[in-house]
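Submission checklist for the structure archive. All mandatory fields must be present; incomplete records are returned to the submitter.

[x] Identifier: Helix-turn-helix domain-containing protein
[x] Organism: Taibaiella lutea
[x] Residue count: 293
[x] Sequence attached
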Amino acid sequence: MIPIHDFATDTVEKTPFKFIPLNQRSDYDTTKAHRHRYYEIFLFAKGGGYHEIDFNAYNITDCSIHFVSPGQVHKVRREPDSFGSILLFSSDFYYFGTKVNLPLYEFSFLNTHTQGSPIVQLNEHQFDELLNLSRMMGAEKSLNDVSGREVIRTYLHAFLLKCHQYQSHQNPQQHLDGHGLFLKFKSLLEDSYTKEHLSSFYANALYVSNKKLNELCKTFAGSTLSDLIKERLLLEAKRLLLHSNNSVKEISYHLGFEDPAYFNRFFRKHLEMSPVLFKKSHLEPERMEDELA
């Protein structure tokens, strides 16, 4: 089963915030697939290698920032001479004690299931600006002090806003009308996809017509409303097939399918193979890759 790391159990994280050098992570093997119950932000000053996040492989490049959200399955295989830093924080830490922060779901790089990329590519000046913000967070020693935690949260919010600003320049769609409603849909989908598979549920919950919500999905994600629901179900199905010990029957029930046979047909229709064959075809190459590494 894929390991799930948390601040409460990891030996290096006793507080819901950390800023550490990239090479300090030695409590578990980051080259093996794993997930967290907190956010991880990688600041790669020197690139090399690749970072796999939810079955998508991204090259690690100089001056790039990689975002991994709670629940996402990832592994990092970087070159020995690459270096950088990592920010770790929980959603509770981000929200506690302040009412001014932008909700985390509004940052597209933290919510990539239906839109956006988890990578923000920067120039050297932009990267140095964000690295300095990170270092100021790391230099703040008063984690046990209310004002000290609030200082870190202020820096963290500024950090995320700057990333949002730079990414928005690369993706002007985020300024179009309806983007806020689309973000609310993304948040609702993440909360409800295992229970609600019908497009009408999401439209009714957001007080819009199916047609309107479908148009927003096509504008901001390039996919229809029903396709985004299916894609989220398939992503979680693939995660569980490869990184849990659950049977296909258990996975189908977890994802809200009352009939495992229907889940099998659904999976085969969209991936052109059965869940069992998908698992076998992916796990065997991964074992060979691990043996050669």
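[x] Structure attached
Curator remark: The radius of gyration is 20 Å. The beta strands are 4-5, 17-21, 35-36, 39-46, 49-53, 56-59, 64-68, 74-78, 83-89, 119-121.
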